[in-house]
From TrEMBL:
Record's keyword terms, sorted: DNA-binding
Source organism per UniProt: Hordeum vulgare subsp. vulgare (Domesticated barley)
Limits of the HTH myb-type domain: 349-405
Domain of life, source organism: Eukaryota
Protein name per its UniProtKB record: Uncharacterized protein
DNA sequence: TTAGGGATAAGG
DNA sequence: CCTTATCCCTAA
């Protein structure tokens, strides 16, 4: 599946490793060359995937930007995202078509032909290709239609999950720790809106008093957050079609009894202390400082929401100069009207067991064949769409279970 | 992060 | 009940 990526040479061969064996090399050197500055954590391949997949499929973003990102970001395999592969094909086609209509002959320029002859590209237009073969105008219409039909990016799906159409489910199923994170992402006003629709008051004063104490003991509680993004943050993809069971987001990072009761006491206990189920009776827990990764805002007690605009933000316009037909003004994502169906019975931890689909099982087997048993993280990254709502532990357990037959 | 033990929801 | 698939906990 070779593809013409434009001027940048394809960095694609694979996410940095093809060997099915253990290799725990340093993920990346925070090297001085082009790498992220010291103030930013390095981008993982998974992050790069999210960025590229979003940018590639947005027609308004020029190809120069896309190829620049392609060169700058860690390499990502396009195989697993229809949107990414299709967008790349469309960009290649557009590049080949650009400025080629001058002769008005309607003839397909050779460059465009070359692109269409790429089986990796042709695969996306199985039905229409024959019709379009020699007709530039028809090909352009096809390209337009395909752009319009591109599936949403994982980032957009995730945004919908936490603040859009899926917000109610997501929040209803989130435990307190997860909600804390959601609040940071979404902002307190949106949080109120969501909780209001859920019929829960805003969660009790999210005290962040820890900022004050945290004596010596230094880095003892530094981790435990980093991994959080992997399992809990990716929303389901392709879910739109079947809301049958797919739409109960679950977050399992921290063991916590979920309650719908709005006034759950804060959980100012180091996670290690929570493991037992008796924290309620432990008399001195309140003195502990909760490990918190957030620098609390002096006034609000919270880091400003990531959704809120920063004063330092700068806007670059793509001077597209042309069609402003679908000029969409920045608008808030619409929350669906509240339906009472999702209210879980109070006190009951409502976790939905998710059956493994046949496709997930087959993909898991394929992943083990390609990457080796035990490299669950790599497999998950290799098939982000398939395993979006499966943790690496889920995958390990599933494979173990499948082996027993 | 992973492997393995154990708990528990689901379904006979 | 018993079995099975899924989920959770913890050591390393």
């Amino acid at each position: 599946m070779e593809m013409d990526w434009g001027r940048t040479q394809s960095p694609y061969p694979d996410p940095e490793q093809a060997q099915p064996n253990k290799k725990r090399g340093g993920e990346q050197d925070g090297g001085p060359d082009g790498g992220p500055s010291a103030t930013m954590p390095p981008l993982t391949a998974a992050d790069a995937f999210l960025v590229l997949e979003f940018v590639a499929g947005n027609r308004l973003l020029p190809h120069s930007l896309f190829s620049g990102l392609l060169a700058a970001l860690p390499s990502v395999s396009p195989r697993t995202s229809t949107r990414l592969r299709k967008a790349v094909a469309l960009r290649a086609l557009e590049a080949a078509l650009s400025g080629s209509d001058a002769d008005g002959s309607g003839e397909l320029p050779r460059k465009a032909r070359d692109v269409l002859d790429d089986p990796g590209v042709a695969a996306f237009f199985p039905d229409h290709l024959a019709v379009v073969r020699d007709d530039v105008a028809a090909l352009r219409r096809l390209v337009d239609a395909e752009w319009a039909g591109l599936p949403p990016s994982a980032l957009e799906l995730e945004a919908d999950r936490i603040a859009g159409a899926g917000a109610l489910d997501t929040w209803a199923n989130a435990d307190q720790d997860t909600r804390k994170i959601l609040r940071l992402l979404v902002g307190e006003s949106t949080e109120r809106e969501i909780l209001g629709k859920l019929g829960e008051g805003p969660s009790k004063a999210p005290q962040v008093d820890e900022a004050a104490n945290a004596p010596g003991t230094s880095g003892a509680n530094e981790d435990g957050r980093a991994q959080q993004d992997d399992e809990a943050n990716l929303g389901r993809g392709k879910g739109e079609g079947n809301h049958a069971q797919e739409d109960c987001a679950r977050h399992q990072q921290e063991p916590v009894e979920r309650t719908t009761d709005a006034r759950i006491p804060e959980k100012p206990v180091p996670s290690a202390a929570i493991k037992g189920k008796e924290q309620a009776t432990s008399s001195h827990v309140t003195g502990q400082a909760a490990p918190d990764h957030n620098k609390s805002h002096p006034v609000t007690g919270f880091k400003p929401s990531l959704m809120e605009r920063k004063p330092s933000a700068i806007v670059y316009e793509w001077d597209d100069s042309g069609d402003s037909d679908s000029e969409r003004p920045p608008r808030k994502r619409q929350l669906p009207t509240y339906e009472r169906k999702m209210r879980p019975p109070p006190g009951v931890p409502h976790k939905t067991r998710k059956k493994w689909t046949e496709m997930q099982e087959k993909t898991l087997i394929e992943g083990v064949e390609n990457y080796g048993k035990g490299n669950w993280k790599e497999i998950k990254i290799a098939y982000p769409d398939v395993f979006q709502d499966r943790s690496t532990v889920d995958m390990k357990d599933k494979f173990r279970n499948m082996g027993r037959h």
